[in-house]
Specification:
Helix 9 packs parallel to helix 10, helix 9 crosses helix 14 and helix 10 packs parallel to helix 11. The strands form 2 sheets. This protein has an 8-stranded parallel β-barrel, surrounded by 7 helices. It has a two-stranded antiparallel sheet with strand order 1-2. The protein is an alpha/beta fold. The protein starts with 13 loop residues before the first helix and ends with a helix. It has a domain of 272 residues: Methylmalonyl-CoA mutase (TIM Barrel, Alpha-Beta Barrel), CATH 3.20.20.240. The model has no long low-confidence stretch (mean pLDDT 90).
Length: 434
Amino acid sequence: MSNFFTNEFQPSSSAAWKQKIQFELDGADYNQTLLTKTNEGITIKPFYHSDSFEKIQVPIIDNTFKICQSVTILNEETANNEALTAIEKGVSAIIFNATKPFNFKIVFQNLFNKNTEFHFNFSFLSEKFIQEICEILITETIYLNIDIIGNLAKTGNWYSNLNTDFNTLDNILKTAKPNFVISVNSEIYQNAGANSVQQIAYGLAHANEYLNKFGGNIAQKIQFKFAISSNYFFEIAKIRAFRYLYQLISEQYNTSCSAQVFVEPSFRNKTSDSYNNHVQRFSTEFMSGIIGGANTISNNITNKSCLQNLAILKEEFSKNNIQEITEGNYYIESLTKQITEKALDIFKEIEKSGGFLYQLKEGIIQRKIAENAKKEQNQFNTKELILVGSNIFKNNVEKSTIFKETSTLKNYRQTLIIPIVAKRLAAKLEQKSK
């Protein structure tokens, strides 16, 4: 871009801008009036300037991303039809959700050789079944997303026990052909109420348990899953900060890799009604994922409008270099740096105290998430944190059944640790209004 226009004006320093703002405040305190402290402990300033601009070198990302559609396997033929329909609409990745082994010959009928990624979300661990999946999909790009630690965090129990689960995963790592075998499911923490700094720190510490156990060679076999909320710039910075930190940590294992990031819209900020607000939230969350540098972005509900919006965004962003969107954006760069520093501090504390698994077993992670969740809930209840259509400007006519409360402990059994359970901010308010 030509500097002809900007050259017509004399540059103003950061100090000059602040002096002018203080004059306009007419005696009000600058810090108390214009500086905002977030739940993460990050300070948001009223302006950002090149005088105090600092940035970190976030790894360069590919300009393309995959559009993913979620398909739950309740009936194999239905799941197959849903996958085929999604691919016809331009989807380039499918994530299959399964609670038990299924007939993969029916599910994958006519799905081969379509340049489509296949992701899996298994709520069970079967070495035999996974090996069979790998064999039938040997020519396809697949992400197994096995996360035994994530299962422990979410349900409170191992699939079998610690040693058996790690041995099963070790066997799969040694024999499975897919590039991506392990998942680190950080959306568990976001959907339960963790703030953006905690999500990154816990995701890194979660991954570090696998790296400690299996070595740095598996750093490139891990896909990270994040839930994206509506705090637009913070969510962009969150993914950027994580990408930087994961490269930093992988280097400590004598390897260097760029994080493979899978994102989907958050469950926590959604409501059981207000369809149009859902579409708007999904769209901004998709954009945060794209600009932040996600490799795969999932439309985690069967919603035509949301899928169409994601397809439009992909088309629009294909015309631009995503890296350039954040380049020189002082606000995003500042958020990225602050989130990085605070997340790294928490990560170091976790490692010094015995590691992520130790803190899970002691209930420390759960307590920290619960504290932030309670703070957010109070902010929602007092309308300091606003969800349009829920705690303000509620639409009593428009209804939707997209998001309903589901218990992860439906079949109750005694748990080894306190499970980390997803909680929607609007859930109690909706119950009161019935």
